[in-house]
Amino acid sequence: MTEPMARFPDLQDKAVLITGGGSGIGAALTEGFVHQGAKVAFIDIAEEPSKDLAARLAKDSRHVPMFIHADLTKVDAIRRAVKTAQEAHGAATVLVNNAAFDDRHELLEMSESYWDDNQAVNLKPVAFAAQAVAPGMIAAGGGAIVNFTSTSYMLNIGAMPSYTAAKAGIVGLTKGLAGRLGPDGIRVNAIAPGWVMTERQKKLWVTEEGLAAMMDRQCLKQLIQPEDMVGPCLFLASKASAMITAQVLIADGGMM
User: Fold this and answer.
1) From the Swiss-Prot or TrEMBL record, what is one GO molecular function term (predicted)?
2) Superfamily designation of domain 9-251
3) Which residue among 6, 16, 157, 219 is least crowded, i.e. fewest CB within 10 A of its CB?
4) Which residues form the catalytic set?
């Protein structure tokens, strides 16, 4: 990824925490905040790609990014990870809730345990990461939380009901958090990406027919890349969006 064209000076030296920051959209976000000169800590369960990313970014960064290995389905693990990041960088005043797992599953075959496990990955960490960073943000006088939802729940996609329910839930949670934390100077917004061409997507689900259908619906006739999510996230994390909260920014090339 090349260095972002836009610079947000207020993000320099800010303590930033990113969940799921080791691959896909998350890796692009990690790199984007590192290029802004922020003190970035990112949480991921996949160790090797995360270590490789941290080592690569450490070569040319104002602050060496910190990789924290944790299972975000465990609330205690989230709290320990936030504490580790805070001890290294100070209280995070930017939180990016990006971690997700968009597994396909059939409604008529879905078990209770599958539903619970899926929600534990896709929705629960958003709430408890926000809870864990909130005291530090309040003490610092404010901050910004950016939650990643998805356009999938808006499109009536039937192949992943638990996932789309979680992504819709993130919107409701975003608005609730904005109402609760706004008086403390904390803004909470969400980004809803379209079909982003991560390596996982290309490996598992991208087909010529699917891409053609997407291009037919998008106003912008080009594939959406992970780095296309960086600019919107930096904007919502920075003072450039000082009076924006409780909003969902759709970044889908105009498909909706």
Assistant:
1) oxidoreductase activity, acting on the CH-OH group of donors, NAD or NADP as acceptor
2) NAD(P)-binding Rossmann-like Domain (3.40.50.720)
3) 219
4) 163
